Every structure is written in structure tokens, then in C-alpha cells.
# Entry
Amino acid sequence: MEMNANNEPTVAAERLQTGPSLPDKPLITIKSSKKVVLGFRDLWAYPDLFYFLVGRDVKMRYKQTVLGVVWAIIQPLFLTVIFTIVFGVLAGIGSDSVPYPLFAYSGLLLYVFFANAVTNSANSLIGDPNLITKIYFPRLLLPTAAVGGGLVDLAIASVVLVMMMIYYRVGVTSNIVILPVLVALITLLALGVGMLLAALNVKYRDVRYLVPFLLQLTMYVSPVIYPTTILKTILPERLHWVYGLNPLAGIIAGFRATLFGLGLDWLALSISGVVTLGLLLCSAYIFRRMEKSFADVI
# Structure
């Protein structure tokens, strides 16, 4: 210990004994926020990780396969052949003056994208437990990347749709400018449903068994293989609004209208847009509320 001439401890020695002085008030205060931020802004901070996850999902889907990306075409094309024989030839279901194979493929193109995107998005979190428990990144990236990978399949399968339109000599109209909006709308719908199911699937693993049943039911209550006019004739008029609450109904009908020059049902399309955005916001809120427990439960 340092001493002065009068055998008294110096100021430096006193500080060593008493330690550094502390401020009267804390410099930093950490408080838990009660607000739930939806987290869509966080996705822009990790673009490289998003593209990596999308590329990884696409590569893993077709890894060690003989046909590769051709599987993106086989599924909707094979279903189109079956439904054309059963519903177009045997049952004689109408198709709004559009050749039934073209009518069925256009609906199945969107439905197959929606079904695969929801399935992959719902299983995205439980499929990457090590990634979730070891490093930090916005968990919302996983279901979003799963939906983004489905857009690659949609683009590939759309080539067959263009070829069919050329074969049946169906020309495009000015309504084609609305097509990107409809693709964006069904992408957001798939993200909203997949995000919600992904969060629930972490805590309740039986969700994975429920998803295929729900998607199969969705196909038959949506105008995938039949026009909307048929179901409206079956349902009482007072219940037509219930059918309109199905966002896939307005999106698929609008998709066909833009391609084949049919009349656009703006009311149904508006309802589909409102329901889709509402579902997306609610799903994001639930996802962020449950996100803090993913690493512990998974």
C-alpha cells in the first residue's frame, strides 16, 4: 500500500480499497417490451440468408432425383389428366367456355403451389432444430424461404400453361396486367397459413398430420376443378357470402379471368385480398408471440 510522508494512505490506495465509485443512477436500464413487433422488417436485414435458404430448399427437394425439376410439372399435369377424364369427360362439368384441360391446369397450378408452399412452410421449423437452437436469426425467415422456394416450382410449371394456351389458341387480354397482383396475393396467403401452422407445429406435433387433410379439403371447396357458378347454384343464395370468405375462391377465379379474358369479380377479389392480409397479420402476431419458446420446445 502506498503511504505518504505522514504515514497516511494516498488517494490511489484508498480507491483500491474502496473500489471505483458508482453513479447514483443506472446508466442503462433494460426493460422487457410488452409490444409484439410483427418482424417483417427484420427480413430485409438478412437478404443473403433468405436466398441461401431458398436455394437450399430447392436443391434438397430435387437432390438425387432422376427427373429433377420436372417433378414441378408432373404433379399438376398428372392431376389435370385425371380430372379431365373424371370431371370433364365422364361428369361433363362445365368450364366457362374454356377447354377443360386448360381450365383444370390453370386452377391446379395455383392450388399445387399453395399446397406445397403451406406444407413446406408448416414443417420448416421442426425441420431445422439445430439451426434454431444454435444461432440467432429471425425465425420468420424459415417459413418465408419455404414459400419462396415454391415460387420457383410455380415459374417452371407455368411454362406448360403457356404451351397449352398456345395449343388451344387462347390469347391474352389486357387483364393480364393484374396477374402479378394475384400471384403476390396467393403467395401472401400461403405465407400466412404456413406461418401459423409452423408456429403451432413446434408445440403440437400432430399438426403435421392435420395439414394434408385440410389441404385436400381446401381443394374441393375451392374452384380448382369446377367453376364458381356450379357451387353457387348448389348453395342457397343467402350462403353465397360464406363461400366468398374462402380467399382461394376469389384468387383462382381471378387468375382464370386474367388469362382467358373472362369477367373479373372485383367483389370476390377484394374480399380475398382483405381476408389474406388479415390472416397474414394475425399469423405474424401469433408467430412472434410463440417465437421465444421455439428453442426450448423444439
The chain has a mean pLDDT of 83. The chain has one domain: 39-290. Residues 39-290 form one domain. Residues 147 and 187 are 7 Å apart (CA to CA).
